Structure formats: C-alpha cells, structure tokens
Amino acid sequence: MGHSELSRTFMTHITEFKKDVSQSAPQQIVALIMSMKFLRINSSQIEDFENGLKFLDDLASLLLELKDKDVKHAIMGLLVEILLPVAAQIKRETNIPALISLVQKLYVTTNDMTSKKHHKLAAFPLVTCLLCVSQKHFFLANWVQFLNVCLSHLKNKDTQVARVALESLYRLLWVYMIRNNADGNAATRSRLDSICGSLFPKGNRYIVPRDAPLNIFVKIIHFISQQKLDYAFKEIIFDLLCVNNRTQRSLYAERMNVGIRALMVIADGLQQKDDPPAMPKSMGPSASGTVQKTKRKQYITRPLTNEISK
C-alpha cells in the first residue's frame, strides 16, 4: 500500500472515530495513530517523499484540529517517529515546498506548547524535528530561542523534562555544527560558550543534567570538534581533565570519564579520517560514545602525528 492510499485509509478511519461521541473514542484514535508508528518515508525518491509529506500534512491538520491531550500527544509522537529519520538524511530536500509548508504550519503552535507543563514532553521532540528539517535560514533564525529554552530546563527537577531538553539540544547542535557548518565565528563562540557553560559548569564536580547517559556528552563534544577542534580541546576537554587548572587537585570521575572518551573518539576519527558523525537517531548506548560499529576498533594504534591528523 502506497503512502497516498495509506493516508486515505487512515483519514477515513479517523473521520469515523471523530463522529463517535463516546468516551472511548479518543483511546480508539490513539490506538489507530500508534499503529502507524513504523511508517517510514523514503526521502531519496522525490515522488515518494512528497506523498509521505502529504500524509504528514494530514497529521499536522489533525494535530491542530483535535483538542484531546492524549490524541495530540500521540500525533506529535508519530510525527517525531517519522520525521527523525528524515532529519538525519535530508540535505537539499529542505527546500521542497511541501516540507517548508509543513514546518511553517506546525512550528509556531508546537513551539508555544513547549511552555505548557502538560505538553512539554511531547512538544520538545517535535519542535526539534521541525527545526532539523527546516531550511538553513529558518533554522538559524529560530533555533537560538529554542536552544535557550532547552538550556533552562537542563536542571529541571523533573528528570524526564531535563532528559528531553538534553536530547533536543544535542540534535540541534548536530544540525548547527555539521549540516549547517555553524555561522559566524563570534556567534558560534557565543553559542558554544552558552551550551558548554550549562552542560559542563566550570569548577563543578558534575555535568548537567546529572542522570543523563555520558555518551550524549561525548557526542556533543564530538559534534563541536567537527567545526571547532581547538575549542573542543582547549575549552571543554582540557577543562574536564583539569589540564587548565593547576591549583585544582581534585579529579572528578564523571568529568574525567567524558573528557577522556571524547578525546579518544575525536583522535580516533582524525586518525581514521572518518566522515562526520551521523545525526543521533536513537539513544542506544555505545561504548565509545559514537555510532556503534560491528567490528572491534583499536583506538590510536600508532602515534597521532600531524600528517595523520590532516
């Protein structure tokens, strides 16, 4: 069944459920929406991609129309499931009118929902996905405001909110540093100072948020190193390893762990002349903090010389 036929069938069932005024109707709609979570859009074929975007547009209209909170959250979750793999793959496809229209249709409403306590957990990932599939100028015009919202929630007492904010941050950072190649030097430095000051507070025993997997922080440093290698070492890794602070005798295990792993990942990538890291699509643990590989890797099998690092 193609996307067009699937979309028609889905919307037909939704229309029938919307006529149902019983208390069980929202649960039935949620169940129907959840049944679509394995749907994926092929972004390599323009016709398939546009048909898939038509289905996403139908979902967007449904999100804006329906009022039930659980239904809204189910739709938002489905949009994230479908958009996240797309965000990891697309490049010039961000200029497709149907995708531009989808972002414009949803962004303002979903961004407003991030400030509402009962919508936060569903809204943060969707706003992130919309930014990640947007055109470069739209991303650069809007991401800083949302970045600041994410940073403000890293210390949220609700650990789920803090974790969602962190995941949003590190996906946005990938788009900023790797896909969009950052922006001006001064602006980039300011953004990175703000991010790293929140994640790795200087003089602090811990990194923030406290309960997040350390591999996320390793990846964040890895992403930064793709455009700002000096910054990654001098401002982040050296600080985590207490290299810059000769008066500090205490070594903090968590910070050292992240610093050493980030150093190894970056140095190994330079030695192997690896491509830039892929956008994080899942939260599966990885020993090195980067993409899992099937074969066992040996880090730094010979000295890392200037020639190797080029």
Automatic annotation (TrEMBL):
Cellular component (GO) terms are: cell cortex; site of polarized growth
Q: Biological process GO terms, please?
A: cell morphogenesis; neuron projection development
Which is one Pfam family of this protein? Answer: MOR2-PAG1_N
Instruction: Using the record's annotation, list all stretches that form the Cell morphogenesis protein N-terminal domain.
Output: 6-306
Q: Which residues lie within the region annotated Disordered?
A: 273-310
In terms of PANTHER family, this protein maps to: FURRY-RELATED, PROTEIN FURRY
Q: What is this protein called?
A: MOR2-PAG1_N domain-containing protein
